[in-house]
Amino acid sequence: MENKDRLFTRRDILKSGAASTLLPLIPGSVLAAASKPREYRLTASSTAIQLADKPFPKTDTWSFNQQSPGTLLRFRQGEATRIGVTNALPQSLTVHWHGLRISNRMDGVPELTQQPIGPGESFWYEFTPPDAGTFWYHSHLNTAEQVGRGLYGPIIVEEKEAPPVDRDLVWVLDDWRLDNQAQIILDFDNPRDLARAGRLGNTVTINGRIPQSVPVQAGERIRLRLINAANARIFALRFQGHRSLIIARDGQPVDPYEPGGPIVIGPAQRFDLILDMSAEPGQRYSVIDVSFPQSPSRLTNLVYRATPGLERAALADYPGLPENTLAEPDLSNALVQPVDLRGGDLGQLKRARLGDQQLEITRLYLLGKMWAINDVANDGFTDVPMFSVTRGRTVVLEFKNHSAWPHPMHLHGHHFKVIEHSRDREVVGKWLDTVMLGPEESARVAFVADNPGKWLFHCHILGHARAGMMAVIQVS
């Protein structure tokens, strides 16, 4: 990457006491008038955060702008943006803008799209978000550890016309593995986690705090943006006593619909909901996580204020969000690519290629590689593509999960339309960037390969990616 992209040094950070604050450098009205990009800064540093309630001490985390989740970034659809990322941590890092269809060189994958940002260094990311919706940013080097320590934050790209709601809330969901002093247990290479369901924490948070209650007003309409930033936990949420209307998934609008059961949100996925607060003042209702049906847990409570309610039209009257512009796949001339997912405990992986070697499963486990795509275990962010496709051609990915564990599969740089899914009928026809495949499930997704470059493709259970479940596709 050219030197002009590196603008700050550690000395600059120390000279500027405001470097840790996310701050627009120029007011939006001036930017619009001058046709200049909107500029932000993010600083990655070590920060003590009160994750657990007192008397527990603060938790030592890694964060953006001294908070985890990092500061909410608000972009405007179609507006040029520059974000200066400064690294005040002892490890190198990059930042991936998850779900944003931006140029390859800004995608934030180390070695593949950029050189890592070393300690004391900075890098400018420049892009124009084409889609309105809910997205997020996170580190993408040593990802399982750095995200597990708190290096992530939410993104909202605003629609040109906002939907008619009283409040717009963001819930970034996460779980943390803490010891009895509320400190992060640093066993990110635990082989049991890598080979099974991934790293599950013992402390669930909303927006970086153990949730207690959310105050609401009778009659108000809330847009709730759910982002799952956990390393591996799958949430399945029920809003007791309330109807929820799903209006977007993974940042892309959908025809509004009520879910047929709990809202299941895997790692990296996002849901936008409309919730009408239809109960009486003074009441309270729980939001329950039923991802483990044998032991459901309360995520938080919706607590109604005692004041009189607002007047609001019926939930069913909501017309939905304006669509983003995505190229419709042409299935008649598609490149069809099988994607076989194998490995893990109780899996079917017998051997796989690692680098230039074909290794038996026992040897792979000793090397920390438990997973493979098409019998290839990835060792880092390789630039050897799983397949190449000409720009503008439709690609159909035919997933088959041959393992005993779930896999949320994420493609960088594109959204895909789900054509078939062996279990989840609700997802068919939706545009996603991350599709969930349970044990022995299959799915077909299609997208137009209209964004040139080498793009990462991986399981977003971050331990699975670390242990081999990654690949690269090339669009040229």
Please, could you describe this protein's structure?
It is built from six helices and 33 strands. The two termini are 20 Å apart. The chain has a six-stranded mixed beta sheet with strand order 10-9-12-17-14-15, with no helix packed on it. A six-stranded mixed beta sheet has the order 23-20-26-31-28-29, with no helix packed on it. It folds into three domains: 3-158, Immunoglobulin-like (Sandwich); 167-317, Immunoglobulin-like; 331-475, Cupredoxins -  blue copper proteins (Immunoglobulin-like). The chain is mostly beta strands and 476 residues long. 7% of the residues lie in helices and 40% in strands.
How is this structure best summarized?
With 476 residues, this protein is mainly beta.
Count of distinct structural domains: 3
Question: What does the main sheet amount to?
Answer: 6 strands, mixed
Order of adjacent strands in the largest pleated sheet: 10-9-12-17-14-15
Given the C-alpha coordinates, what overall shape results?
A: globular
Query: How many E strands?
Result: 33
Number of helices: 6
CATH superfamily of the largest domain: Cupredoxins -  blue copper proteins
What's the CATH first level of the largest domain? Mainly Beta
- The proportion of strand residues reads 35-45%
- Rg, nearest Å: 22 Å
| Poorly predicted runs | 1-34
CATH topology of the largest domain: Immunoglobulin-like
Oligomer status? single chain
Tell me the CATH architecture of the largest domain. Sandwich
Structural class: mainly beta
